[in-house]
UniProtKB/TrEMBL annotation:
It comes from Actomonas aquatica. InterPro entries: Cyt_c-like_dom, Cyt_c-like_dom_sf. The keyword Iron applies. Gene3D superfamilies: Cytochrome c-like domain. It holds the Pfam family Cytochrome_CBB3. This is Cytochrome c. It comes from the Bacteria. Residues 100-185 form the Cytochrome c domain.
Amino acid sequence: MRYVYLVAFFLVVLTVGALGFRGSISTKPPLEVFPDMDRQSKYQPQGESAFFADGRADRPIPAGTVAREIIIGDAHLTTGRNADGEFAAGFPASLDIDEAFILRGQERYNIYCTPCHGTLADGRGIVTQYGWGTPANLHSDTFRAQTEGELFNTITHGKNTMFAYGDKLVPEDRWAVIAYVRALQRSQNGRLSDVPAAYQAELN
């Protein structure tokens, strides 16, 4: 008989625990067996603080602070412009344009650019299937004629409906993406004369 009482007791506790207080409103804080870090003292963004003299929780950035990955002194590398302030042609001299660099650009391109510009950079990314704008075809004469510095500026700050990616790609990666885009453009506009004579016969 004792077990019957125990079973009945647990059934009552289970039923009340699962259904007994559903829909009821309480002004008391909930019981938390393991509160973890759900509730803790903290400052809310743009909140007030009695600790600081100006009463603000947000603190101004100290003078002279430089964001990580920002390289000072190489305008071509960090802005895409030459000493005259014009968009620079070519890649910064500090970069090694090799296979590894272009593969890095391919990786970054596939992550950030493919959804709009497509795998081939022809502007046929997946967003076009949902009617989301008309991404640029990077094989058009307009983009083929642009300097590398102008492309860098567009990636950094965005243009028209294109978002800015300066906060997502460090300068070296932006140049790597441009190198890969140049490779894609070259692949779609190559001529037979571009192929070494020893290999031209293989294309016929």
